[in-house]
Amino acid sequence: MAQESFDEKITEALHRGTDEASAMQEKNWKLIRERIREKRGISMPKRTFQWKRSLGISAVAAVMVFMLSTFTQPGQAALEKLKQYFAPEKIVKYELEGDKENIDSRLQQGALGYVMYYDQERYKVVEDGQLDRYVMKETAEGIPEVYMEISQDLDNTPEELVAKLEAELKADFSKVDAPEEVTDPFEALYIHAIDGGTKWNDPVVNYYLVDDTNGGSFVIKTKYFLEAAEGHGARFHSMLKEFTILLDE
Which residue, 221, 83, 205, 215, is CA-closest to 151? Predict the structure, then answer.
């Protein structure tokens, strides 16, 4: 299919899709995200989709054209349009300390090949092309550093990285849990470390190593302090539920 024809079809579909109600747009985002993951070979729970009921016809067209693109050059252009279709801001429900909060969140579309909604009231994103760092907007003297970093290792799988990161953590932290496979907030190899564990300001680090399906990994690091585990730690966990790999490099 020619680039111009392909772009015209995806543009037309997405323009029609923007006329859907906000509730429908949220359903579109969730289903598009899952279909992209399925396309990339990431295992997802088996579900039956009632396309016409769950998605507007225009959104179906956009998704199906994308699915047929097989990441050719036109497919990359379509993907960029799909990224633009995701709402730049939305309200995300977080569960924090047993309570549910509606958080005003912004879509991060960095150069690393993923999208994620983050709590824009509390965090800002610092990008340098190699990693995205989500840091607190408000800090105070004496408060330990709090951040989440997302980077990509193009050459090593999670299984190849995990031993190296575990060794690095053991050099700096008094307690490092054995790596484990997790499914929450997504499928990943997970390492948890804490130094001390009795004082409010004892540092905590978590690594999530995510298969990028191309022989590499997304490396996600969260750092906070013990007293912030149910605050910043829980917020980072909720943000990562919105993490979605998009691009084939």
Answer: 221
Given a contact cutoff of 8 angstroms between Cβ atoms, the answer to whether 242 and 92 are in contact is: yes
Domain boundaries, the chain: 3-85, 89-245
Q: Name residue 173's amino acid.
A: F
**pLDDT band per the 50, 70, 90 thresholds, residue 61:** very low
Q: Domain 89-245 in CATH: superfamily?
A: Mog1/PsbP, alpha/beta/alpha sandwich (3.40.1000.10)
Do residues 218 and 150 make contact, with C-beta atoms less than 8 angstroms apart? yes
Neighbours of 174 (CB within 10 A): 11
Asked whether the whole model's pTM tops 0.85, one would answer no
The pLDDT-based confidence of 90 (bands split at 50, 70, 90) is: confident
Cα angle, residue 76 at apex, residues 220 and 87 outer, rounded to 5°: 65
Closest CA to 127 of 150, 101, 107: 150
List the beta bridge partners of residue 148: 134, 222
Those residues with Cβ within 8 angstroms of residue 48's Cβ, 6 or more apart along the chain or in another chain: none
Neighbours of 154 (CB within 10 A): 10
Of 21, 87, 8, 7, nearest in space to 56 by CA: 21
Q: pLDDT per residue over 177-197, tens digit each?
A: 999 999 999 999 999 999 999
